[in-house]
Each structure stands twice: as C-alpha cells, then as structure tokens.
Specification:
Strand content: 5-15%
Radius of gyration: 17 Å
Helix content: 40-55%
Cofactor: [2Fe-2S] cluster
CATH topology of the largest domain: Glutaredoxin
Organism: Acetobacteroides hydrogenigenes
GO molecular function: 2 iron, 2 sulfur cluster binding; metal ion binding; oxidoreductase activity
Strand order of the largest sheet: 2-1-3-4
Protein name: NADH-quinone oxidoreductase subunit E
CATH class of the largest domain: Alpha Beta
Family: Belongs to the complex I 24 kDa subunit family.
C-alpha cells in the first residue's frame, strides 16, 4: 500500500465512506499533501467505490481543492465585483510585482502561489486577501506587501 493510499484509508476511517464524507476527506488530503494528486483522487475513488471522474469533478469544482501543486503559502485575492470596485486590480498587480509571478502561478522558490478566488465572504471589507487560512480585509497594495513579507522564510 502506498503512502497516499494509507492516508486515504485513515481519512475514510475517520470520516466514513458515504458520499457526504467526500469533501471532508478531500479537504484533509489537501491540508496534508498541499494538493490532490491523480494518485490521491484514484485512491479516494477506490475507497468510496465511486468513479475517479466523480472525485475529479468534485475536486475541480471547488476553488480550495487544488489539483495541482501549490506554494507553501497560498495567496487568494477576492475577485468579486465589490472587491474589484475597491481596488482588487491594483492589489493583484502589486502582489505580482512583489512576488515576480503572474496571477495563477507559483514563485520559483515554492514559497507563494498567487490566485484570485470567488467571494471570500467579506464584501463589506474589500478588497480581501486570504493567505493560507488567514483573512486580511481592506487590503491596500502597500499593506499586502507587508503582509506577505511576514510569511517569507
């Protein structure tokens, strides 16, 4: 049994293998492995006795279930209209420049991935940036740079 198959088995024991447990298992895999590999999705499909296409369809539908490797720190900037109207474009541009990557990419050292995401639930405090699980409301280009510098190692 491979390491990922063992992880999936443990998570299935923890959460169960009914369809309602699929999200919890996928989220735990992403938390531990940083993304859902093809091997992980196949192992989940086998454990849940569903098709790999069902697992991939679920994984690819949700923004936070990454199906490609990401950086150690994932920066998500809300891209809804309310954040756009409050300066989201300038925020993303400043982050791209500071990190040396375009939106959707990971820095060469693997420290940061920059993404835009649908609503983060802070429309009244936009623009909003999420770094890993930390929410930063009312972010300016300058404060965003200071924030990401706290995550540099």
């Amino acid at each position: 049994m491979t390491q990922i198959e063992e992880l999936v088995r443990q998570l299935a024991e923890k959460h169960g293998t009914q369809r309602s447990s699929l999200m919890a298992v996928l989220q735990d895999i992403v938390e531990q492995e940083r993304y859902l590999s093809e091997e992980a999705m196949v192992a989940v499909a086998q454990e849940f006795n569903i098709s790999a296409a069902d697992v991939f369809g679920t994984a690819s539908f949700y923004t936070f279930l990454d199906t490609v490797p990401r950086g150690r720190n994932i920066i998500r900037v809300c891209k809804t209209i309310s954040c756009h109207m409050k300066g989201k474009e300038q925020l993303v541009s400043a982050l791209e420049e500071a990190l040396g990557v375009r939106n959707g990419c990971t820095t060469s050292d693997g420290q940061f991935t920059l993404l835009t995401a649908n609503c983060l639930g802070w429309c009244h405090k936009g623009p909003v940036m999420l770094v890993n699980n930390d929410v930063y409301p009312e972010v300016t280009p300058e404060s965003a740079i200071a924030i990401i510098n706290k995550y540099r190692h």
